[in-house]
Specification:
Length: 295
């Protein structure tokens, strides 16, 4: 499902609300080493004014008041990692690596690790469910209340102060991703709109010590931007712009540790007891399938 940009009641606020101090745009036609021009309204692709996508250098440092390298270092050092065959602890702060079955994509290992946080206690308010292609209920218990992650909770508070000041809804779902080397990547995709609130911004803030290439394309593969983004840089887009484009972090021959935080406003929750029932049902179905294969 997608929001109707032509409908006044559904349309998100115009990003013209962004002040010049908030936005430094990147023109895909400029040389890769050229400093982007300071402007409030220039887009990643100025010749396509319908695409509300902005690049904001040093967003983490100036708007979120956090050092992007220190933040990723702290998150990696302070929280446990669930790897292959490790059980996920319900509603606890933790990393889930791509070799853990709960994070597999259509049975395949992912080349990245993730943490999930949300606004509110999952036990009393339910788990915030962000749906994407290949998503499994098995990974939902890994989501914790962001207040359990003090390194991130103040960052979220600062982001929500900023975004609500621009007349967009507060984010309630936060995915932290790390790419430990050049092989770690995420393919070209757009965020599926099924569980995203219509007026949500999708904000990706780059973390870690090193920059990584970030690519944005039209759905037909036309490249809008392909450049290294420094830690602290934000990519900010509306849901409508997201649905007209694809973005990704391609694999590279060599790279140091990097990552991101993605802020979204999600409209769907799954209650604790409902999730227990769903996982029990899934386990029963898998057992029956395995038994049938054994004959």
């Amino acid at each position: 499902e997608s929001s109707n940009a032509a409908s006044p009641s559904n349309a998100a606020p115009a990003l013209s609300a962004l002040a010049p101090a908030d936005v430094e745009s990147s023109n895909a036609a400029s040389p890769s080493n050229a400093a982007p021009a300071r402007s409030a309204l220039e887009r990643v692709c100025p010749e396509r004014p319908e695409l509300d996508i902005w690049i904001v250098p040093e967003f983490a440092q100036t708007m979120l008041n956090v050092d992007p390298k220190e933040l990723q270092d702290q998150l990696e050092q302070n929280y446990p990692v669930r790897r292959k065959d490790d059980p996920i602890e319900w509603a606890e702060p933790q990393w889930v690596e791509g070799d853990n079955e709960a994070l597999h994509y259509r049975g395949n290992e992912l080349k990245r690790g993730k943490m999930w946080c949300q606004a509110g206690d999952p036990e009393t308010e339910g788990f915030v469910k962000y749906y994407y292609t290949g998503w499994q209920y098995a990974v939902l218990p890994a989501t914790c209340d962001v207040q359990r992650v003090p390194e991130l909770s103040e960052v979220v508070e600062n982001y929500n102060t900023w975004v609500t000041g621009k007349d967009y809804p507060a984010a309630n779902h936060f995915i932290v991703t790390h790419y430990v080397d050049g092989d770690h990547n995420i393919g070209m995709h757009f965020d599926k709109p099924v569980s995203i609130a219509e007026k949500s911004l999708i904000t990706i803030v780059k973390t870690g010590e090193y920059g990584r290439p970030f690519r944005i394309e039209m759905l037909d593969g036309t490249v809008l931007m392909d450049k290294v983004l420094a830690p602290g840089t934000a990519v900010i887009m509306t849901l409508e712009a997201n649905l007209k484009t694809k973005h990704g972090v391609p694999a590279v021959a060599q790279a140091g540790s990097s990552g991101s935080i993605v802020f979204r406003t999600i409209k769907e929750r799954v209650g604790w007891a409902d999730l227990e029932r769903q996982l029990s049902k899934t386990a029963t179905s898998k057992k029956r399938k395995a038994d049938s294969m054994l004959g």
